[in-house]
Write a structure and sequence with these properties.
460 residues, alpha/beta, 12 helices
């Protein structure tokens, strides 16, 4: 087949303006340093552990007592090493879930691990082990609290801020603060003081990204482990509205199954068509959160639902490999360890991820493309059987690529298209099947001004 490589971003740009005031508006939306640092380490883990682990529930009732938390020991070293083996770079711990039980000896409530049979501070054990094993540590603190009698009053906002301050000052560096939007439909009507919460995070942990009900990291919108086909990071500012995120979040324990389904609702958040209708834009990358099991907390009844390494790897490719962050939940059991089935899948996942970059053929730093050299040609030292291509944009210049194609150059000198897609973003992982090639060509068909690429790498 003969391909027309002259139709590219520098010539017709798929019929769209390459540079005008509207395009200038889009490419002026840039990530801050904390977001760029975060995007460089896009795979990390959730640990759902707490009162629900002891009682065998997904959501608590608010009527539990500290003695109901009957877990007496945990193996934090096993938690961290098992998750690290999967290729993850950090852990976010559910320091307080909706039931209100605190995994640290908070000075502001009796409903904490200090009044249980557990002798110690679980948050400290995990944060120290993360530091020891060179993993990032993050916190989950549920704004909704079923247990605390102050909930629904301004006094609760004070209480929540005191808790947040404890977690951000006593456990070292925090890389992400996760504010859940879930709240029971029968909960007291109550307005959280989000701006006050954000101010505390910015003051005490200025390098931490605030996720979900926060301004830095966006919830992808489901718990199915799936991203949109075109997941843009430059999106309308209204998506940062925490109250709207809460509206789309879980409102009952029974709604969990519906969030595990992916629908095409709001499938276009960042195309030109979507952006031109919004006067205010922001850089707001998506985070895909999904559990290795059917539920978020451990249940022995769900040992048969542990996702295989193959399934987890597919989720990785469709999240990290499509301009998203991946937050994989791994719940320890009521013995204080990660179950062997979960550990086996995670170890195999780590091997699959590491194999992507095991056999390098060619890596090139790129930069801003010019109209004189709109297409990028690559020559290999010999014939190779390509299995992976990884390409990334330099997002310090915003997200620009809107359509691209990748071709391999076969030993007979002819080209074969192996990928036709839309966004690149922070990382685009392209899976091939041992394609015999002596070179390759990257053609950007559509862009917002000149494309600015970080690098491309080919592996066999």
């Amino acid at each position: 087949m003969k391909y027309d490589f002259n139709k590219n971003w520098a010539t017709d740009n798929n019929g769209y303006n390459l540079r005008d005031s509207e395009v200038d508006r889009y490419i002026s939306v840039l990530p801050d340093e904390r977001q760029l640092d975060h995007l460089a380490k896009p795979f990390y883990a959730f640990i759902h552990f707490g009162m629900n682990t002891a009682t065998g529930r997904e959501w608590g009732t608010g009527r539990e007592t500290p003695k109901d938390f009957n877990i007496t020991s945990i193996d934090a070293a096993q938690w961290v090493s098992t998750i690290k083996a999967a290729g993850a770079t950090g852990i976010i711990l559910t320091c307080k879930h909706h039931d209100g039980f605190c995994l640290w000896p908070s000075k502001y409530t009796d409903f904490s691990v200090k009044n249980s049979d557990f002798d110690g501070d679980i948050v400290r054990l995990v944060s120290r082990e993360c530091l020891r094993q060179k993993m990032d540590f993050g916190i989950y603190l549920s704004p909704w609290d079923m247990h605390d009698k102050r909930y629904g009053t301004e006094e609760y906002n004070d209480y929540f801020c005191n808790q947040l301050t404890e977690l951000l000052t006593e456990y070292g560096r925090v890389f992400e603060v996760w504010f859940d939007g879930a709240k029971g439909s029968n909960a007291v009507e109550f307005e959280y003081d989000w701006e006050r919460y954000y101010k505390i995070v910015r003051s005490l942990q200025p390098d931490a990204n605030i996720a979900i009900c926060g301004p830095d990291i966006r919830w992808v919108g489901n718990e199915a482990g799936k991203a949109r086909k075109s997941e843009y990071s430059v999106v309308p500012m209204c998506l940062r509205d925490a109250e709207k995120t809460m509206e789309n979040s879980q409102k009952s324990e029974s709604e969990a199954s519906s969030l595990r389904r992916f629908t095409s609702a709001n499938s276009d958040l960042g195309s030109r068509k979507a952006l031109e209708k919004n006067s205010r834009l922001c850089f707001y990358p998506a985070e895909v959160d999904v559990s290795i099991r059917r539920g978020w907390f451990y249940s022995k009844n769900e040992n048969g639902t542990v996702k295989s390494a193959k399934r987890l790897f597919d989720i990785y490719l469709k999240s990290v490999g499509r301009n998203c962050l991946l937050l994989l939940n791994v719940p320890p059991n009521n013995k204080g360890v990660i179950h062997r089935k979960d550990a086996r899948s995670l170890k195999a996942l780590g091997r699959k991820i590491s194999r992507i970059t095991q056999s390098l053929v060619l890596r090139q730093d790129l930069g801003e493309l010019s109209a004189e050299r709109p297409n990028l040609d690559f020559s290999f030292d010999r014939e190779h059987k390509l299995r992976w291509v990884v390409v990334s944009e330099n997002l310090a210049f915003s997200q620009r690529v809107e359509a691209f194609e990748l071709y391999i150059k076969k030993p007979n000198g002819k080209f074969k298209m192996v990928c036709k897609d839309t966004v690149i973003g922070s990382k685009r992982i392209i899976k091939l099947h041992g394609e015999r090639a002596v070179g390759a060509k990257l053609v950007i068909r559509q862009s917002r001004s000149n494309p600015v690429l970080q690098e491309i790498a080919f592996y066999e």
